[in-house]
Amino acid sequence: MKKIIVKDKLNRPLRDLRISVFDRCNFRCQYCMPADQFGPDFKFLPKSALLTYEEIERLAKIFVSLGVKKIRLTGGEPLLRKDLPVLVEKLSCINGLEDLGLTTNGVLLPKLASKLKEAGLKRVNISLDSLDDELFGKINGRGIGTAPVLEGIEAAEKAGLGVKINMVVKKGLNDLEIIPMAKFCKDNGLELRFIEYMDVGSTNGWKMDDVVTKKEIFHMLQEHFELEPLDAAYFGEVAKHYRYKDTNIKVGFITSVSESFCSCCTRVRLSANGQIYTCLFNGNGHDIRNFMRNGASDEEIAERISSIWNHRDDRYSDERTAETDNNRKKIEMSYIGG
Ligand code: SAM
């Protein structure tokens, strides 16, 4: 397809595509899919509502023709979707795509890491919020200890995938785990990224007081480690990076609450049921699945996506305050992924 560069109203190009492949998860993390809200009666998407792998591939190619260079698969838990390596293989062959990654809780990596690597996956971000089994089980809402995730990390490294660890920090819940996690990752040569707890969705009861900011985490780290700042690797890089002195091991911060990065946000999100979201904090998406299923051509789909991006002026995190209405309808993280 012909390459076109599309920009939004704030002159931000389209560069990154997050694709949620599944709205289900085997965890019930309190900050993401709390068990009392996502219980046994919760109605997940029926199979017919999910984009097929062929549909995802077709859309991904169109997104790449509009400037997307990086794709990250997420969820829900992406590894729960049947035959995920089949999708990875399709995406990894797209001409012009520079990077293909996946975000996962890691539990199924011992089974899938090698297959994913062979299919063309480059990197995995694995979520781990604590090294304490009891606390981790409480956070994931399923009583699952850390062992399956640690085995997943090992399997990913063994398979030759790049590995980064994501830790969401919530005040009073796992802030005491910041230093043990940092030590563990440093000792094992793993890049750890601290993610500020965000007000995604409307089921996690988010309060500004629950956020542990980058500044607070950084001060804690400085009591134990010498850190050197690193420059951003590219425009739109989400994490702010440091390096432990005299090593090549990085530590990063995703500061969407305390130091928002809307002005360089180049991310678009495609939900498991084919809705396009131009911001993690949107309430409504733009349908692309039915448009495609009703017979739209690639050119018509490209035009629709360009138009959605051209009209984009979201800068939610720039505008958020402690008083921002947290009851406002926002899409759940499990639909569009992190
Ligand atoms: N199931 C996969 C996982 O556990 O990584 C992928 C989906 S999960 C929604 C993607 C990322 O979003 C994870 O790193 C998770 O910790 C993060 N996340 C979920 N809810 C969050 C919140 N309220 N604030 C900050 N990060 C959140």
Brief synopsis:
The chain is of the alpha/beta class and 338 residues long.
Q: Work out the helix count.
A: 11
Major sheet: arrangement of strands: 7-8-9-6-5-4-3-2-1-10-11-12
Class by SSE composition: alpha/beta
**Hetero groups:** S-adenosylmethionine
Separation of the first and last Cα atoms: 29 Å
- Nearest-integer average pLDDT: 94
Shape: globular
Question: What is the topology?
Answer:
Elements: E1 16-20, H1 53-65, E2 70-74, H2 84-92, E3 99-104, H3 109-119, E4 123-127, H4 133-139, H5 147-159, E5 162-169, H6 178-187, E6 191-196, H7 214-222, E7 227-229, E8 240-244, E9 250-254, E10 267-270, E11 275-277, E12 286-287, H8 289-293, H9 298-310, H10 316-319, H11 333-336
Parallel strand pairs: 1-2, 1-10, 2-3, 3-4, 4-5, 5-6, 6-9
Antiparallel strand pairs: 7-8, 8-9, 10-11, 11-12
Helix pairs in contact: 1-2, 1-9, 2-3, 3-5
The protein binds S-adenosylmethionine.
Structural description of this entry:
The protein is of the alpha/beta class. Helix content is 29%, strand content 17%. The chain contains 11 helices and 12 strands. Strand 5 (162-169), helix 6 and strand 6 (191-196) form a beta-alpha-beta unit. Helix 1 packs across helix 9, helix 2 packs parallel to helix 3 (109-119) and helix 3 runs parallel beside helix 5. The protein is globular and about 55 Å long. The chain starts with 15 loop residues before the first strand and ends with a helix. It binds S-adenosylmethionine. S-adenosylmethionine (SAM) binds at residues 25, 31-32, 74-75, 77, 103-105, 127, 166, 168, 195, 197-198, 200, 204, 333, 337-338.
